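Subject: design request, 178 residues
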């Protein structure tokens, strides 16, 4: 993997994320088409990701039985070079915490849809191992902006564009510290 190609992937991802932040997300079909296009480009150019060493992420939902948004997050995380362990939908905080204590991931990606999930989210956020960054998304953060602070969420990703944009500035050495 050449540094030039890694920088080109970063540039492409930044262009995509900023465009979506400015203009709004395209259709789900276009989001998935972009995943395919970026994946093809990575294969053709033999690019593994945007970091020399692949970060690790555990993903799950607390109260989302469909996981459409989480699936997109996982796909774009993989494009960036993140190794993703999908725990599944409707996971209990104890299972997420146990997996994090065992694997010590760089990130936990959670979807939270309902306001009454704040106790479960706080349980996860307050019990992660040091160095694990909690990234959460879902409509609850629009209705309760203080929820992220109360529940020790490091970053709220409004959608996949904000997730990509945040991670483009994250480094293994200088990522957000807990």
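Subject: RE: design request

Done. Sequence follows.
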């Amino acid at each position: 993997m050449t540094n030039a190609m890694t920088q080109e992937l970063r540039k492409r991802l930044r262009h995509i994320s900023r465009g979506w932040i400015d203009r709004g997300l395209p259709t789900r079909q276009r989001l998935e088409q972009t995943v395919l296009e970026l994946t093809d480009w990575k294969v053709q150019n033999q690019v593994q990701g945007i970091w020399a060493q692949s970060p690790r992420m555990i993903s799950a939902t607390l109260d989302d039985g469909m996981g459409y948004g989480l699936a997109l997050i996982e796909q774009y995380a993989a494009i960036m070079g993140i190794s993703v362990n999908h725990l599944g939908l409707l996971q209990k905080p104890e299972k997420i915490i146990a997996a994090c204590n065992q694997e010590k991931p760089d990130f936990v990606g959670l979807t939270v849809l309902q306001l009454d999930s704040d106790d479960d989210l706080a349980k996860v956020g307050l019990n992660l191992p040091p160095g694990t960054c909690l990234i959460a998304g879902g409509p609850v953060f629009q209705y309760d902006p203080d929820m992220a602070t109360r529940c020790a969420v490091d970053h709220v990703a409004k959608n996949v564009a904000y997730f990509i944009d945040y991670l483009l500035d994250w480094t293994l050495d200088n990522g957000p510290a807990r």
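The longest strand covers residues 56-61.
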